[in-house]
Each structure stands twice: as structure tokens, then as C-alpha cells.
Amino acid sequence: MQDRPVGAAERWAAPEEGVRLARPDDVAAIVELACVMAAELTPMRGGGLWSVREAKAAPLEDAYGSLIGRPDAHLIVGTIDGVVVGFGAGEVELLRDGSRLGVITDLFVHPEAREVGVGEAMLDDLVAFFAARSCAGVDALALPGHRATKNFFEEGGFTARAIVMHHRLVEDE
Prior knowledge:
The chain is an alpha+beta fold.
């Protein structure tokens, strides 16, 4: 098969970002990204406790795979040219007054794929999922030292509604 010359339009075409529902065959890529996310967040201020409280518990294949197909959960992947480079997860929480709250539990884009719109597209998709389920609002967590995440959510229309204060009783070894 002969190579065909690449035209200027093809050579300079921008990568195509996309968001789609996660499929069972995406779970391995999601787990790999979740491990990169944990390696990035755990050393940050608040990350140690996040890693043992808010982060999904092992086995990650089961934790993420169990979200697929649930009507109260949304697991998505962000792609560039069809390659999975990010993922997002969220669940609908029923509140005591009968209203619903959307909770984004995970939203991560591989560091080498940031700044091109994948995260924004996934955030929009998660918010739309929660809106379609009549949620009164959407919560997402940002670690106190992760200014980029705080800015990302603020640019997406989020504001702080609570600040969790923590007093460590046991010193790190």
C-alpha cells in the first residue's frame, strides 16, 4: 500500500475532543487514569485523607465498573481523536427533604491532555446528566492546595458552598 501525501488541512487539523458514556471495555483505561489521579492528588494538601475517604476503594475495576448502566450514576470518558484521556463520574444523592443533589466524585484529565477542552466537555456532560434527573444542584470537591481545580470549577459556574475545616490529631511519620 502506497503512502498518500498529507494535505495541509489534514496536517494542521486540530485534534477532536469528545465525551461519551463509558463502556465495560473502558474500565481498564479508567482505572489507569484513576491511578495517575491518585498519584497527583495524594501528595497535595488534603490529598492523604482524600485518598482514604473520597477516592474510590479498591478494587477499582469493581468500583468504576459498578457505575455503568446505573440510572442514578454517570460514568463518562473524555477522548482526543478517539483515545481515552480522561474520565468523569457522578452519582445522584437523595436528600432528606426529597430533593436530589448531583455529586461529581471524579473528574480527571491526564496531564498531557489538559488545556484543550476535554475537562470542560466532561463537566458540561455531568451537569447535563444531573439537570436531566432534576437535581437541585451539583457538588464537586477540590483539594485546598489545587488552585487549578478550583479555578476550573469556578469557570464552569461553581461556587464554594462549604469549606471543610480539619484538625490533624496524628502527625505523619
